[in-house]
Every structure is written in structure tokens, then in C-alpha cells.
Structure to design on (81 residues):
């Protein structure tokens, strides 16, 4: 059984839930962008991979969001190692 110090606080749980929602929206929207790109590329013959731009930018923002959502856990893990 884990000790009390390892259980996330309610605020941490809220941050993690928000991050999980952000991740789900990221995956859904970017999958739709890729589908639009493939359909458009098949119709026009232009294969420039424009969805990589929003995926890269939003992915960087998502990484920052993950870092803030799991900051306490990451710091504890570094301290143990």
C-alpha cells in the first residue's frame, strides 16, 4: 500500500484530468486534420504535409501542459533516482 505522501492531491488530480482532456482533443483534432489533408491531397495531387505544422506547435504546448500537470511526480522521481 502506498504511503500518504505518494497519493496525488485533489488539485494535482484536476490538473492531470485537464491534461488528459487536452491530450484527447489534440489527438482527435489532429487526426481530423490528417484525414482532411489526405482527402485534399488525393483530390488535388498536392502532397505538402501541412498538418505537421499544427501537430508540431500544438505538441510543444501539450508537452508544457504535461510538464505542469505532472511536475510534482517528476521531481519526486528525480529525487529517488
Amino acid at each position: 500500500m502506498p504511503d500518504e505522501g505518494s497519493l496525488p492531491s485533489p488539485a494535482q488530480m484536476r490538473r492531470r484530468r485537464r491534461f488528459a482532456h487536452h491530450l484527447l482533443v489534440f489527438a482527435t483534432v489532429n487526426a481530423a486534420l490528417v484525414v482532411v489533408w489526405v482527402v485534399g491531397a488525393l483530390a488535388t495531387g498536392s502532397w505538402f504535409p501541412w498538418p505537421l505544422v499544427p501537430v508540431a506547435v500544438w505538441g510543444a504546448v501539450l508537452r508544457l501542459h504535461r510538464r505542469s500537470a505532472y511536475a510534482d511526480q517528476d521531481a519526486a522521481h528525480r529525487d529517488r533516482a
In short: The CA atoms of residues 8 and 73 lie 8 Å apart. The chain has three helices and no strands. Helices lie at 10-44, 52-69, 71-80.
